[in-house]
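Reopening this ticket.

The earlier resolution said the output was attached, but the attachment link was broken on my side. Pasting everything inline this time so it's all in one place.
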Amino acid sequence: MDKKQLIEWDKKFIWHPFTQMKSWLNEEPTIFIEGRDCFLKDIDGKWYLDGVSSLWVNVHGHRRAEIDEAVKSQIDKLAHSTLLGACNKPSIVLAKKMADLLSEKLKWGEPLTKIFYSDNGSTAVEIAMKIAYQYWMNMGIRGKDTFVSLKEGYHGDTIGAVSVGGVELFHNVYKPLLNKSLQAPAPYCYRCELNNSYPQCGLACLNEMEKIIAQHQKKVIAVIVEPLVQCAGGIIVWPEGYLRGLREICNKYDILLIADEVATGFGRTGKMFACEHEQVTPDIICLSKGITNGYMPLAVTAVSEKIFNAFLGELEERKTFYHGHSYTGNPLACAAAIANLEIFAKETTVEKLPSKIYLINEMLSEIAQLRYVGDVRQKGMIAGIEIVKDKNTKEPFPYKEQIGWRIVKAARKHGVWLRPLGDIIVIMPPLIISKEHLQRLLDVIKVCIIEVTS
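Inline output:
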């Protein structure tokens, strides 16, 4: 089947996510046909350095032999079985591994040992929200009907997840459909609406968060946040102490804390989980993306025994968590995840990150000096470069100029694949990227920013 035929079918039949299809229909798309290490090959044979881990899911590179073999071996045994009233071996083994890992890494509160499976970040968040709401109901506490989240937050695209989202561009149109939620200011220090002086921004935002919770304590079910980095909102990196302070506020007012680590988990911030950096154990954690290295859709919502026990009771008490998915605990996905976790352990992936993190920091310091770079932000292997029209006033470029997109399209000519968030260039390569390829990635980004903005 030739390229022309594939493009014709793509434009005729596929509705792409987060894509203005009128523009798409007038462009020639890139069709990927192969992956290897940190690279992707298109249908014309051109290789691209994958600078965004295929939308932040790939941690160990494409075509990892260990994960390939795990999936092949499992498919010879069992491709799928339901977890509704039955079990399968890979889901049991993975649950044990995840419970052990969470207990080891997040050891400053009740261990998160109860694992509920789903298939993506949005569903993991929906499950967390429903569990948190029903937890209070099962405990005999009524009147709690509101979540607290952050402006510029992103937790997925299903209705519950959108209800606690704060990215106006993505979420504003759906407001009439949404559940009850309150939003506190994000500690977006570069554009903080309260105090953009670091770390005063964090303190000011914590104060506002506490005011909201104190005022609405009886109605608040939980606070839900993306710890340390609000990724889709613009790679907003929190000032040190904000997460720890948030945990203390939740403890003070007896409010559940939900950590959405869908994007920040599995080594992205320089530790296995972002919450480790400030010695915080949430009450509920949501995980996906890097859990299978991008091989299969899979997500985990993990809770403490305390929360799990609130759902135990006689059938007539109706305390059961009535939620599930057809593909919950899919054996192929769980087999991929098990192999993925084994690579983390065998190759000490997270322990090898500091020198790469330092390299990104050094290169960002150079890039920060460019005329149209307003801010650079980094946490571990996640970084964002905010392009502005005026460095002094922080005035953005007009939306129609699409500066971010022009920069990433220029990078593609240099064999680097990126995807921006508006005029913020996102850097999130696979964790196993070599320093040589990481240097190339950052060099190309620097060259393309100069090329497009000049």
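Reporter confirms the inline version is readable. DSSP finds 15 helices and 16 strands in the chain. The CA atoms of residues 16 and 24 lie 9 Å apart.
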